[in-house]
Amino acid sequence: MTAVRALADRYLEDLAHLDPTVATGLGRSFGQGALPDLSPAGASEHVQLARRALRELSTLADEDPVDRRCRGLMEDRLGLVLSRFGAGEHLRPLSVLAGAPAEIQGAFELMATDSDDDWANVAARVSALPRALSSLRASLEEGIRSGVLAAPRQALSTAHQLSTWAGRHGGIPYFASLADRAPERLRPRVGAGIPAANEALADLADWLTATYATAAATVPDAVGRDRYIVSARQFLGSDLDPDEAYEWGWAELERIEAEMRRLANEIKPGASIDGAMGWLDVHGEAAEGEAELQRFLQTLMDETIDALQGTHFDLAEPIRTVEAMIAPPGGAAAQYYTQPSADFSRPGRTWYPTMGKTRFPLWNEVSTCYH
Q: What is the secondary structure of 126-148 as a DSSP string?
């Protein structure tokens, strides 16, 4: 292995030790009973790790084209760690879909549950939740003091998310449902930390509602040009001209809406777009219940991968397995995705939120799944 790639591997290993949820995502065995330090001090450790890696990278020479690609990727990703820290993003990590609470909850869904030791890790991680949420609150409080805040909409939505996981909006609390998956003999051990976990969820939800949202009352929903550009690079891996992107986006929206109006008239003559959609909801094919929806989505993904293989893509065998999952209550109203473990023993997954529904019209599920 070259020095550049050895550094990349070492950085990833160090990151996984620093953030146990990263270790879970990669399928590593260590740190599975722990949760990350989300305080300002914890964020500083991430920055120090990135800076050390970049300094060492600057002293190494590329040995082949793969090294050059690896270097470019490291410089981009680690540079973003520094940019986001400099912008104070670690002080406002509130987002229903991808905020700190969602990342923590998602780590539980990726944990191994095959053995007694696995369930012992789950129990330990549940017990670690109050401390993790306390460290998150420390960052949010520093954000208030520094004037670096998320929008009230994000704070209140996250509060509702936390309350849902705590069981305050009806239904089974998230961690109780997690314990129910354990073998009966292990449920008391898993459940021991649940009361404190639920209390921590509820306490943070109340603080976000009563204190944080008030402090953030004047923060607009829109993130602004500078934050948008940094976040776009984080998700796309390339620089984006927001003016050009928005111009293209509006043009595409107008084109698609014209096509939708044409199709609406074909489906139900004289109907508007909303009218045709409503007609399909009632009269179109539908999946009844979560299990039937999950089977539909799994079949759709399997058939799509088979159709694309060898025609549009050459997919390695391990990545051809993708699992359709039903998302637990409390998440965002959009599909999300989790990566496979590094050895592919845990496949990639798509998570579909049902939002309390039991009947699912299928006319739009194909495009939703394909997106």
A: HHHHHHHHHHHHHHHHHHHHHT-
Q: DSSP string spanning 48-74?
A: HHHHHHHHHHHTPPP-SHHHHHHHHHH
pLDDT tens digits, residue range 12-44? Answer: 999 999 999 999 999 999 999 999 999 999 999
Least confidently predicted of 8-22, 108-122, 195-209, 348-362: 348-362
Q: Helices 40-58 and 3-18: crossing angle, nearest 10°?
A: 170
CA distance 122 to 108: 7
Q: Is 105 left (phi over 0), alpha (psi -120 to 50) or beta?
A: alpha
Residue 332 has what pLDDT? 67
Report pTM.
0.87
Ordered DSSP codes for 228-285: HHHHHHHHHSS---HHHHHHHHHHHHHHHHHHHHHHHHHHSTT--HHHHHHHHHHHS-
Predicted confidence (pLDDT) at residue 371 exceeds the cutoff of 80 = no
